[in-house]
């Protein structure tokens, strides 16, 4: 999520430059922007390697020829710079993925479409001003997401990224390992694969070397604890992505993203993974993904290994994941809420399959605002393991993700993700569970007298409000009494707020025995099983209501009599 107003303004200005410079197709503008951003970040990475070698007193062998670097050609006269990029930089860039890599394959038909020398230099100057290397975040993906937000087709096309903090949460919970084959069957900009790689490097970097950004992302990922064999496996064989973007833009951007994060030979392929053409290898140890929720798929071209009783992509992708996993392999996948509770035969059969033929490890329900401004649909994350069967399921009902749940998605203090990660890590620790249950009991005991007092104050507020309605305009005592009780209620609410918030937090995660799920037709909605303490609200007794009606009738009669007297 791009949150910096300054950076947004700079991106807007660059967008206008590209548009007025002849790149009227928005996807062309995004693609050319990505190329320039890639050139810049390659140069930043080379500069960083040079500085690190210098600090260590080591000789540095350049990985990029000097005349191909951003710092060289952006200083040339505008016409010379454009010619140099078209004839030298871009052709060399297209071959960077190595022979046989997906990057090399899909870059063959790529074009550098900036044809105005002044536009090239203006765009480069704009990127320099963004100071991308100092942002400490996945800026390429953030900028791409922001550009897509300017397209009125973004939501319909499904071309938007999964929020980085949600990806990081899922990857942390899945905990990928250096020896595992990891895939995303609808990879987009490859955010899941990049974060999986970073997670592994973080786990395999000496803690004293590792650094952390403010947003929780790791930095200085040297992976010094990896063996040479592990490092080579991670570079060439560990990660595989697929996407069905026929224009190849997504494949190019995703491949660039992988390379910029250290994977030299990206394995990212053009493929509709739900189609007959896709042959699931059944060899992945971990699949991480957010499948597109694009509704129905073409049944005539549906993979024969997938069930024929549905054309809903969100159901088919879960079946596909199970088919592509190695026995014992794991998955973390985002699904729309309908997958959790849909009553159709296809919905129920999928949930039954997850529970009875595999191990459903956990369900994290997310609030509906997570994917705004692109979509307001409520979603959940399913964690499951292929094979075995389920005995009990860990649920977590997320209320806040650290950002406002409106279209602006601004950072806020409320964030359930740290507690979710803590609970997931210790979910099988009996002492951890016992401590939380003990604290829940303490909080409930603390709240009982406070809530009882609240009911008493509500009764008094109700009475005084009625008295005030019947009081003479000259009678100020009724209003002052009402204000005093309102102040008491506000003070009490403040006392209740903190323990109630803690109680709500502690009860958001819980276990459910599989038998209870079976009895509810395999419904996986957290709300069906979460035990909450309903707030008791004040209600007047019928007797009091009748007494007040009688009193009101009496006052009305007295006023009518007074009016009649005035008319005599």
- CATH homologous superfamily title of the largest domain: Vaccinia Virus protein VP39
Specify the helix fraction band.
40-55%
How many DSSP E strands?
13
CATH architecture of the largest domain: 3-Layer(aba) Sandwich
3D architecture notes:
The chain has 568 residues and is an alpha/beta fold. The chain is built from 20 helices and 13 strands. It folds into 4 domains: 1-151, N6 adenine-specific DNA methyltransferase, N-terminal domain (Ferritin); 162-215 and 223-416 and 512-528, Vaccinia Virus protein VP39 (Rossmann fold); 430-507; 538-568. 50% of the residues lie in helices and 12% in strands. Strands 5-4-1-6-7-9-8-10-13 form a 9-stranded mixed beta sheet, sandwiched between helices. Strand 2 and strand 3 (218-219) form a beta hairpin. 32% of the residues are buried. Mean pLDDT is 86; it is low at 152-159.
Question: Which key terms come to mind for this protein?
Answer:
568 residues, Ferritin, Rossmann fold, 4 domains, two-stranded antiparallel ribbon
Summarize the topology.
Blueprint: H1 5-20, H2 26-55, H3 70-73, H4 78-94, H5 102-106, H6 117-130, H7 139-149, H8 154-157, H9 164-174, E1 182-184, H10 191-203, E2 211-212, E3 218-219, H11 228-236, E4 239-243, H12 249-260, E5 268-270, E6 284-289, H13 313-324, E7 325-336, H14 338-341, H15 345-356, E8 359-366, E9 379-385, E10 392-397, E11 401-403, E12 411-415, H16 417-425, H17 430-470, H18 477-506, E13 509-513, H19 514-519, H20 542-567
Parallel strand pairs: 1-4, 1-6, 4-5, 6-7, 8-10
Antiparallel strand pairs: 2-3, 7-9, 8-9, 10-13, 11-12
Helix pairs in contact: 1-6, 2-6, 2-7, 2-12, 4-6, 9-10, 17-18
